[in-house]
Amino acid sequence: MSETRESFNHALKLIQDATTNPLRRAYLLQKLIREEKVSKKELARLINKSPSYISNYLRLLTLPEVIKDALLSGMITEGHCRALSFMEEQQEALRIFEDVVRHNYSVRETEREVGKARKYKREYGRVAENIRGMATGIAGKYNISVKVQRKRRHIFFTLAFPLGVVGFRQLKKMADRLLD
Prior knowledge:
Elements: H1 3-16, H2 22-35, H3 40-46, H4 51-60, H5 65-73, H6 78-84, H7 90-103, H8 107-117, H9 129-142, E1 145-151, E2 154-160, H10 165-179
Antiparallel strand pairs: 1-2
């Protein structure tokens, strides 16, 4: 087996080893991605983890050095660091970190503080207000029940028309407008 292949396999074993510290795991992941040209998706498959697992560890590398040092010394946990890694501004992450240490915040409390401070938040599974507004408008205009959901990469509108002649007329009227 080539030395490169042995090194690659050794890195994979260290990444999967529960005793490897989080920052070393993050550096190893980054090294495999950069030097071995392995995609996050492929790397996730090789270690039986999700691509978000890889992203969470890589984000740890963006933290200020003082936070990384606190993690290595055991002052804060990996969970604290993961929450802090979502901060766009390092100064803001440092401010929250100081509060975490000063007030001995739990990981959940840290996540709550980060959530309050973040400027941009991804909202999984939630439908944007303007889309909900459209659903409400359709419901009012056609006097029907409209349910809006977001699943995976699609937005679903469920229109509920009353059963019978009135509902059929409403459905036909809406279909005619949509098809014009």
